[in-house]
Amino acid sequence: MDFIKDELIKLLKTAGVAGEIDLSAPPKSEMGDLAYACFETAKKQGINPAEAAKVLAQKITPTTLVEKIEAIGPYVNFHLNTAQAAKLILLKKEKKQKTGKKIMVEYSQPNTHKEFHVGHLRNACIGAAVVKMLKETGNKVIAANYIGDIGAHVAKCLWYVKRHKMNDWPKENLGSWIGKMYTESVAELEKNPDAKSEIDGVQRKLESRDREWSKLWEKTRKASLDEFKRIYKLLGNEFDVWFFESEEENRGKEMVQELLKKGIAKIGEGGAVIVDLSQYGLDIFLLLKSDGSTLYATKDLALAEKKFKKYKIDESVVIIDTRQVFYFKQLFKTLELAGWKKKFICLAYEFVRLPEGAMSSRRGNVVLFEDIYNEVFSALQSEVASRHNDWKPAKRDETARALALSAIKFGMLKHPIDKVIEFEVKEAMSFDGYTGPYVLYTIARINSIMKKFGKKVPVAEKYLSGLVKGEEKNLIMKIGQFNQVIKSAADGFDPSALARYSFDLAKIFNDFYGKCGILNADDAGQKTARLILCDRVRETLGKAAELLNIGTVEEM
RNA sequence: GGCCCCGUAGUUCAAAGGAUAGAACAACAGCCUUCUAAGCUGUGGAUCUAGGUUCGAUUCCUAGCGGGGUCACCA
Hints:
By secondary structure, the chain is of the alpha/beta class.
């Protein structure tokens, strides 16, 4: 699209337009392919925009690329020659502009000793997509996970296990069992608040690496981690660096002392270490508990230091639940007061709730990733079986798995991050319309055509003159937008823009597919031209899916 | 109460201050001797309220109303 825009901008400049020129797509394709809005120009000339558009349109003469220039209201609309547009969009490679920053994206951050539910899923999906999009736009990206393997929640879980469950450990699925023990522990603590002091004692023992408790901790921690790694493998999440809270405790405590010395932190009510941020509207920030044991904040100080010192990154992006933004504002402010001038970006997504209310391990109304995956997978198993009786079971399962993951991941990514997702099983089970399977289906349709064609599609400019229809042009123009969509989605950390684009492109393709014969086109030239177009649609959809961390299928 | 996010068809969401506010789901009516009907076509249906800035506001500002979140030993 850049080549086309460059040429149009040149035409406009020759016609006397000065300054920045911005071209947009008109709302309806009949109106033209690209439009220039004349508001600025009109203002400079002191005439009304519709008049300016009319004058400007008359000054520009058609070229091989631009067939018609038309003023509609305040807009100058350019109608492009389809074959020429196809040449510039389908055949010419645009050079990518590189941002070239070194960015660490920290995401997922699950707590061991807890269950992995669909709220965690949203983070994992957004994170994977953000990492891929930032890489695509030329950044060096380090994908980091930060495991909450120590802290109050671990103490709660282990206190309960030690007290009630030492004799009934399961042989399998230890990781998810431990998560359930956490939930039971919370329930018990609610009934019996006095247990709090016992649990605090457990946390202190864990932090002082008491031998007996450490042994229990190591075993359960590993089981939790194995469970997470299994889920990441299924989801296709890969991390370059693993941080653990347990490894940040000591340095964190030291840093708290340093902040005390500098006078940035002080001892607050009850003996805890605090930073008073009330003059910044950020209340009181707690760094260390009164009994000397650590908080999230203690460890995050050390982690921030490690990220910039050890990994020498330019920016630190942290993907978190919106409920933690206040905490992160406090943390960033504290680092700033301590003299840090680093770029911290806090990418907050709204949470996933259930129709009956917020998910809470406490109330036991969480939807586990595992459960929803199994449900979607088995629904797709029967879908696939009903369509492909002849396939081997292994192939059917593999297809159902890919489709299930595409449905779940796309469902998490299609909502903008600042919208609360109300998670409904019914919606997760729908495979029509604005869904992952719809995009995969479109790719599978193209694969099928290519397979029937049976040869490599010959790509050459001479075939493109076969492209003349409106449906073809719509597709070409949409493909032309791809690079810009990637760029703005990456810059805005917004996978939903890319998800929407891939759906729109698939939709335009299916329209084309229904109206234009491909293998049975009117003549050989047209057929080849359409095959080239199909190939580029497939490539674009495939790339979009890849950037969203969604795997595709050959056929379905 | 302070601060943060969100209010658009029945529902879930679009629309860098610009053209007749777009989709999807659901509802209803059609389309498989032809490249995969997980598809396509058609029909109805919406900007929370009141001000302001602007040639122009769904978008920006102010106030209100409604929903959600958060505010010292949780993460």
